[in-house]
Specification:
Elements: E1 3-9, E2 12-17, E3 20-26, E4 44-51, E5 54-60, E6 63-66, H1 70-83
Length: 84
């Protein structure tokens, strides 16, 4: 799958990753409020990923939703790696 950025507005980036749509708020430097992924605090403070009408993952300074399906988790992980 290919990650495509469709729009940016300030710290917000919007795009697609295969069948998934995402919105991510990220900063230039890691923060204690950033999404903790792989190697400590990251640059993402908000993340929303959908597939169709279903929210796959939602992060707003903490996890609100995280799909239990491996395919969805893998897609979220790729989006996180791209911006964190």
């Amino acid at each position: 799958m290919e990650l495509k950025v469709t729009k940016t507005e300030g710290n917000w980036t919007f795009g697609t990753y295969g069948d998934y749509r995402f919105e991510v708020k990220h900063f230039a430097e890691p923060s204690d409020f950033g999404l903790d992924f792989d190697e400590g605090p990251g640059r993402i403070s908000k993340l929303w990923v959908t597939r169709g009408f279903t929210t796959i993952c939602s992060y707003d300074r903490g996890w609100d939703v995280l799909s239990r399906f491996d395919e969805d988790q893998d897609a979220c992980a790729e989006i996180i790696r791209a911006f964190n």
